[in-house]
Amino acid sequence: MKQLHHIFEKIERIFVILSQTALVIMMILIAADAASRYVFGQSIIGIYEFTERYLMIAVIFLSMSYVAKLDGHIKLDVLIDRIPASVTEIFNTLFQLLGAAFIFAIGYQGMVMTYEAWSNQVVSTGLIAWPVWLSYIWVPVGAYLFTCRLMLQFSQSLLLLLGKKKRQFIVKKEDVI
């Protein structure tokens, strides 16, 4: 389990770096577009569409798994604070499994859409005909990565509930990218 977790951490790190790179590229392109509008009085063609349909999707989907690792997704703590810790652990374990199933379904649908867009050579409707599958591909990649993260967390939570294992894989501040 530790070796599997270690391999997954390395893969996840690669995709987080890709997400961060997409964010930096997005900032540079938007700044260049704003400067172009100010200096030349005209936008750079395709920047808005490229950042909206390609880079933003990559930033969001490629970082979802890492955010789950940091326990950074939105939660409703109103009820959690009022129920016993043992019940909270059961709910968390159940929600990790249900979340993994839901995200897997999103990934599957994204994979189907990506394949259809690729095989039919679908392009975007704009001044620049970008291939749409390059936008869609980040949905299944990020969703399957997130599914793996949720399943790792589920297995760890289940082992904790069953008393078979002590708490492991806690994120330390020095592990944060």
From TrEMBL:
<keyword id="KW-0997">Cell inner membrane</keyword>
<keyword id="KW-0472">Membrane</keyword>
<dbReference type="InterPro" id="IPR055348">
    <property type="entry name" value="DctQ"/>
</dbReference>
<keyword id="KW-1003">Cell membrane</keyword>
<dbReference type="GO" id="GO:0005886">
    <property type="term" value="C:plasma membrane"/>
</dbReference>
<keyword id="KW-1133">Transmembrane helix</keyword>
<feature type="transmembrane region" description="Helical">
    <location>
        <begin position="90"/>
        <end position="108"/>
    </location>
</feature>
<protein>
    <submittedName>
        <fullName>TRAP-type C4-dicarboxylate transport system, small permease component</fullName>
    </submittedName>
</protein>
<feature type="transmembrane region" description="Helical">
    <location>
        <begin position="14"/>
        <end position="32"/>
    </location>
</feature>
<keyword id="KW-0813">Transport</keyword>
<dbReference type="InterPro" id="IPR007387">
    <property type="entry name" value="TRAP_DctQ"/>
</dbReference>
<dbReference type="GO" id="GO:0015740">
    <property type="term" value="P:C4-dicarboxylate transport"/>
</dbReference>
<dbReference type="GO" id="GO:0022857">
    <property type="term" value="F:transmembrane transporter activity"/>
</dbReference>
<feature type="transmembrane region" description="Helical">
    <location>
        <begin position="53"/>
        <end position="70"/>
    </location>
</feature>
<keyword id="KW-0812">Transmembrane</keyword>
<feature type="transmembrane region" description="Helical">
    <location>
        <begin position="120"/>
        <end position="138"/>
    </location>
</feature>
<feature type="domain" description="Tripartite ATP-independent periplasmic transporters DctQ component">
    <location>
        <begin position="26"/>
        <end position="157"/>
    </location>
</feature>
<dbReference type="Pfam" id="PF04290">
    <property type="entry name" value="DctQ"/>
</dbReference>
<comment type="similarity">
    <text>Belongs to the TRAP transporter small permease family.</text>
</comment>
